[in-house]
Amino acid sequence: MKVVLKLSGHLLFPYITHEKITEYAEAMKKILSLGHEAHAVVGGGIPARQYIEAARKLGVDEASCDKIGILISQINAMLLIKALGDKAYHRVPQNFEELEEALASKKSVILGGLQPGQSTSAVAALLAERLKADLIIFTTDVDGVYTEDPKISPGARKIDEISVRELKRLVLLHEAKAGGYKLMDLVALSIIERAKIPAVVINGTQTENIFKVITGEKIGTKITP
User: Does residue 202 surpass a pLDDT of 50?
Assistant: First the structure.
């Protein structure tokens, strides 16, 4: 099985610590030991937000703020590469040409962001499309996709399975509300839809959830193309 992991920067990097990075590196090594092909895209997390906030206060334009966030996500990706050792390609690809070189190594490729205006979720979807992956696993800090933000809405209901089309509709519904529930990136969903790659949104605070998905256990929210 070819798997792309989208590792939330907010899970790995609420603050800089080697323990969580090691935990995810060991999870990836276990996936590889089971005979699967695994690659990952790492988000920027709280450090990226802090740098972007500081840049905005300095009057930096949004494209440059995006670039700063990308650089932080790439630093995060490099830490995961170092934790993976010889299981991972040794550099973080900066563009699609370098991505092709990395994939040719037949090792796990770890990405951060690639270009301004594009989320790391979209990068994960593009990587999965390029690989013709069997599955994308999106890790979050909740148990899947909910009808509303479960952190603030007691009536929020977890969705076990949803089509891309329905999820897009739900995303647009929440984006229309001020301070709306941030569900999924629309660009990422469009790529998943056209590539016809299934995805699962899981709680990534416990890495064993990744193996549950790999072994076919039904957890989180399944997104069908």
Answer: yes
